[in-house]
Amino acid sequence: MPAIPSLGGLRGRGNKGAVPVRPVPVPLSAYVVDCAVYVAGERLPGRWTHTEAIKEVRKRHEGFVWIGLHEPDADQIQGIAETFGLHELAVEDALEAHQRPKLERYDDTLFLVVKTVRYVEHESPTTANEIVETGELMVFLGRDFVITVRHGNHSGLARLRRELDEDPERLQLGPAAVVHAIADHVVDHYLDVTGRIENDIDVMEAQVFAPRSQISAEQIYLMKREVLELRRAVMPLATPVQRLAEGYTRLVPDDVRSYFRDVADHLTTVSERVAAFDELLSTLVDATVAKISLQQNTDMRKITSWAAIITVPTMIAGIYGMNFDYLPELHWKFGYPLVITVILGICLLLYRIFRKNGWL
């Protein structure tokens, strides 16, 4: 959040002799969504600052701290980084959005990046320009703390925190249980989003193969773009989740690893769905292009047929439009009706031939 300057950032009358006004610092509480201390799976009452929370936990030699941040700036996160000993490279990544899902270890701290997704409501997939919206969630995991940094407005964890507060037995497993809950929460959203996208693709598929449908290949490419965005969120996460399930670090106890295996299974299901979506959309693109080509060929045959029919009266009229004295039946009183009859007969014959061959 940028600093808030005063009017023009200056104080005084005019610019001469004006005194610059220092930007008003934004308190850390503006970025902290929640800060809680958990001991024996129970949340301790009261409001805590990050320094008070970690002092309380380390004084008790049990429990952990869970701090939630939303799009902090560098100055505000610096105090938390110093208090919890976060690595500067991980802090830099946490401040920058547009990170790929990954898992990195810095000394005694794990840094996990996951992509959050949200399904964008729309009237029809054949007219929508956006179907999937992505955000980012960074997690610092230490021996006695969990710090989450969110980017985006749809990746809130308030509901998840309430559910965990009501499940002390789960929180007794330590901060790794929170990381698992976050990963499971994100992957469950993946499942929900892929299920709704599957319905959209079914609608689009029905439109593609419906007679005289107006869907274009461009709209299918837009859908492929949305699936590609979802794929970039899902596919890279498989390796970090698998490493957490296989005992990559002692920060994740054995009891929690089994839960990560379940998350990995769900993520595999999502990955398979996304890959199937991409293949199906490629097939729909090919079908749409083939349908357009077939329609163009049909139109060309109709145009060619009518051009051939129109050529007959044009040719005969062109011949009789020449100023020659000696033309067949030129001065015969039935010559004009005869020519009209011949033109109509030939045109009718050509029409029946083209209609029989399916050109008209």
TrEMBL record:
Keywords: Cell membrane, Ion transport, Magnesium, Membrane, Transmembrane, Transmembrane helix, Transport. It is found in: Cell membrane; Membrane. It catalyses: Mg(2+)(in) = Mg(2+)(out). The chain crosses the membrane at residues 303-322, 334-354. Gene3D superfamilies: CorA soluble domain-like, Magnesium transport protein CorA, transmembrane region. It is a multi-pass membrane protein. SUPFAM superfamilies: CorA soluble domain-like, Magnesium transport protein CorA, transmembrane region. CDD domains: MtCorA-like. It comes from the Bacteria. Pfam families: CorA. NCBIfam families: corA (TIGR00383). Mediates influx of magnesium ions. Alternates between open and closed states. Activated by low cytoplasmic Mg(2+) levels. Inactive when cytoplasmic Mg(2+) levels are high. Belongs to the CorA metal ion transporter (MIT) (TC 1.A.35) family. This is Magnesium transport protein CorA. The gene is corA.
